[in-house]
């Protein structure tokens, strides 16, 4: 979310170019198709362009006979978060009973809380008897920016996820919403700040709970976190205080063919600031984004494929080899522990507290380890109480991992996606700042990462391999263990703002967040959450040619969310991409341009109260290309 950067300070309270790509592998490439190119679009120039979501990019397919076809891209709105679909407001916040939570901040004008912040998309498909797909779309509503009085409502109002039944036009592929309902989280005590997510190989969605509340701060005073406010609003019970250890996990949502949903939280996957979870091709190894300052790179290896209810959690050690191009390092893995969901749920259900797990000191003290991690961001001296290692490993994996020597200096670790053919994992680091820089303090704290500042951020590539061992020289039961990490797509900061307010190079990615990858197109898609670009963009980056194409521009002040490439949906191809909090400016747009943009955004997005759920269409059908069909428009360039 775009306001993440400033919200990190409240952690204690929660706290035009062308891409050429081979279409298919050499073994299955049809003889008629030579290459595919993303033909990018210019950055927006006028107030009208800067206040809307649009694409003027295209895809060019070149055939071996020398002819080529152009496929113009366009952005399509499925619905706004304030729209009603089948009688249900898409972004409405609901309580434990499934009823709308009311905003009473303006006396005499109670209205339901409605989110302006749609995030993750998960497209769930089922084959039916007519050889068509039944389509469902899961959409996260990350938070609610403000109440009707204008005060921040972040973290205080329970979040939600909707399940939308989609209709697909058989000839054009156009998608339209038919029915929408809210996913029931009452069995897992509600949903805490769901950010990004992914669809598993077994057709469920792994969503997320980001910015886990600080259990130490809560125990000292519940009002130091959002937990008590969240709990009262969700359960509609002013007497409830809540428990921070209920939140900060990966929920898995299963959808049946007839549109029924069930939810479980995977406590054995660890409690931290989950951006998302991405499953590897073995159906058991999982990597995560851990958003915030002083965070960690975690890996989970399940005991059984397609079953995330028990497994082993690891944290990475960065062993730096270079500080160039965003930095490079070898990765070693520290085993935190093994657990089942039920084991960790037992701790939570007995209302475990921070002081049940750790002893604390206030200065360097024998037997205590000095660390600095999210969510507190403070220097702490900790010792695990006897017999509480498992609780520490899964309820406080960052604090426990830091005590064992794992690297806790990552900053704004966001999206994760997989290039299966090359066995590469891509991880977005939105801002290479803070403790990712070389420390000049003589404070005795760990300083594994020592990089030059890149406020525009870096997307990293990680190599995956089998036969690896952990810090105790025990074999890691996975063929997808990350062995090294290096800068792959690097942003460029500018010394001064341009005439649109941009402080990062406008033709390069700034502050990468959402990531998705197309095996067919050999293309990494990158969505921005930038405080350095006035308009955030979605990019297509070819992993072979290293060429970059801007394919979508979003209204000023909004973030690109819900990015998901879908290459075969009844023969059609879509790039799902949402936008949230339009008009929430972070750059300094000069007047009078700012006033004109703001006026148009208010007109287009219900006075900044509407986010948008949508998709990019117009991409060539992978099915048609495999069959050698020359669809599209003739390219006369």
UniProtKB/TrEMBL annotation:
The keyword rRNA-binding does not apply. Residues 1-25 form the signal peptide. Keywords: Signal. InterPro entries: PhoX (IPR008557). It comes from Effusibacillus dendaii. It holds the Pfam family PhoX. This is Exported alkaline phosphatase. The keyword Signal applies. It comes from the Bacteria.
């Amino acid at each position: 979310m775009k306001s993440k950067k400033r919200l990190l300070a409240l952690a204690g309270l929660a706290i035009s170019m062308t891409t050429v790509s081979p279409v298919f592998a050499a073994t299955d490439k049809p003889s008629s198709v030579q290459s595919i190119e993303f033909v990018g679009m210019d950055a927006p120039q006028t107030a009208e362009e800067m206040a809307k979501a649009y694409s003027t990019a295209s895809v060019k397919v070149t055939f071996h006979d020398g002819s080529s076809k152009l496929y113009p891209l366009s952005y399509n709105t499925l619905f706004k978060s304030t729209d009603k679909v089948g009688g249900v407001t898409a972004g409405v916040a609901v309580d434990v009973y499934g009823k709308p939570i009311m905003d009473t901040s303006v006396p005499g004008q109670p209205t339901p809380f409605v989110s302006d912040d749609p995030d993750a998309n998960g497209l769930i498909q089922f084959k039916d008897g007519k050889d068509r797909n039944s389509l469902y779309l899961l959409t996260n509503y990350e938070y609610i920016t403000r109440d009707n009085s204008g005060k921040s409502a972040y973290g205080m109002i329970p979040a939600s996820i909707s399940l939308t039944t989609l209709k697909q036009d058989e000839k054009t592929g156009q998608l339209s919403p038919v029915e929408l309902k809210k996913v029931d989280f009452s069995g897992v005590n509600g949903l805490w700040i769901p950010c990004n997510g992914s669809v598993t190989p077994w057709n469920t969605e792994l969503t997320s709970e980001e910015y886990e509340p600080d259990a130490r701060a809560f125990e000292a005073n519940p009002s130091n976190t959002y937990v008590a406010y969240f709990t009262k609003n969700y359960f509609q019970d002013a007497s409830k205080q809540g428990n921070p250890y209920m939140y900060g996990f990966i929920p898995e949502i299963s959808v049946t063919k007839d549109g029924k949903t069930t939810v479980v939280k995977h406590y054995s996957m660890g409690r931290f600031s989950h951006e998302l979870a991405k499953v590897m091709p073995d159906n058991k190894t999982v990597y995560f984004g851990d958003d915030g300052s002083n965070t960690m790179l975690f890996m989970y290896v399940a005991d059984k494929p397609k079953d995330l209810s028990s497994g082993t959690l690891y944290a990475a050690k960065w062993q730096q080899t270079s500080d160039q191009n965003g930095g490079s390092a070898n990765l070693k893995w520290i085993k935190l522990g093994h657990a089942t969901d039920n084991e960790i749920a037992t701790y939570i259900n007995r209302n475990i507290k921070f002081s049940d797990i750790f002893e604390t000191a206030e200065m360097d003290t024998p037997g205590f380890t000095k660390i600095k991690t999210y969510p507190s961001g403070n220097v702490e001296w900790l010792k695990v109480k006897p017999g509480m290692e498992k609780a520490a490993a899964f309820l406080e994996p960052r604090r426990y991992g830091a005590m064992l020597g794992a690297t806790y200096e990552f900053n704004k670790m966001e999206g994760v996606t997989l290039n299966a053919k090359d066995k590469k994992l891509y991880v977005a680091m939105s801002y290479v700042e803070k403790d990712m820089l070389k420390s000049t303090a003589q404070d005795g704290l760990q300083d594994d990462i020592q990089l030059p500042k890149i406020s525009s951020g870096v997307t990293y590539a990680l190599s995956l391999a089998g036969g690896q061992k952990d810090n105790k020289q025990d074999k890691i039961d996975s063929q997808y263990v990350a062995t090294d990490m290096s800068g792959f797509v690097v942003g460029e900061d500018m010394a001064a703002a341009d005439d649109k307010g941009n402080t990062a190079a406008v033709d390069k990615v700034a502050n990468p967040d959402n990531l998705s990858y197309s095996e067919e197109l050999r293309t990494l898609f990158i969505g921005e959450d930038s405080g350095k670009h006035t308009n955030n963009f979605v990019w297509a980056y070819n992993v072979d040619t290293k060429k970059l194409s801007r394919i979508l521009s979003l209204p000023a002040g909004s973030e690109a969310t819900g990015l998901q490439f879908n290459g075969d949906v009844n023969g059609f191809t879509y790039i799902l991409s949402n936008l949230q909090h339009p008009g929430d400016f972070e750059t300094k747009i000069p007047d009078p341009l700012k006033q004109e943009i703001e006026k148009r955004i208010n007109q287009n997005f219900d006075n900044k109260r509407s986010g948008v759920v949508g998709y990019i269409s117009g991409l060539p059908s992978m099915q048609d290309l495999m069959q050698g069909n020359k669809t599209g428009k003739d390219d006369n360039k």
